[in-house]
Structures are given as structure tokens and as C-alpha cells.
Amino acid sequence: MADEDPDTIRREFGEAVNMTPKQLEDWLQTEESQSVGQKSGGSGESTGHESGRRIVELLRTKKDDLTDDDLAHMRKVHGYVQRHLAQGPSTDVETSNWRYSLMNWGHDPLEKS
Prior knowledge:
mainly alpha
């Protein structure tokens, strides 16, 4: 983590995550949210859905209380959103698994920044 400035990580995370904690919490309760993403282990929860719960916590954490682990996850979120945005569908974005997966990571591509 020493190679990246925490301020840069927080700024990039803030640019990637355009949903509020409440919007993300509400989204994570939907069937659409729970139906997408890669599931690992036996929990039945996708990686993105689990990340979404963590993002809610991060959004509610004070800047000075963020740990190196928190900053690492914030960097992971930014990277995921950037990679995923580059793979978007050309039609039917609103109800696409692509959008639903991004929303699990706190980014709604239809939301105006």
C-alpha cells in the first residue's frame, strides 16, 4: 500500500462509487442484486454482493478510521468498476446483469454523477 497515496485511493473510490450507503443497502436486498455475480465457497453470496456490504461500511467510516485493509478494498472496488465499465452492453443496459453487477459494487452506470 506504500506505493499509493491514501488520498488518491479515497478519491478514486469516491469517483467509482456513485451510490449512497442507503441506495446500496436497498439494492443489495433485491432479487436482482442477489441473482448476479460469481459465487465462491458455500455461502451462496456472490463476491460483488459481499463487496457491496463492505462498501456500505466503508462509506460510513470516517477517513481517519480507515485501515490499510479498508484502503486495499477501496482500491479493488475502483479497479473492478473501471474494468467492468469498459465491458458494457450496447443495448438493454437498464435490466442487464452487467448493470446489476456494477451496482453490487456501488456504481450505477445510469446514475448521473
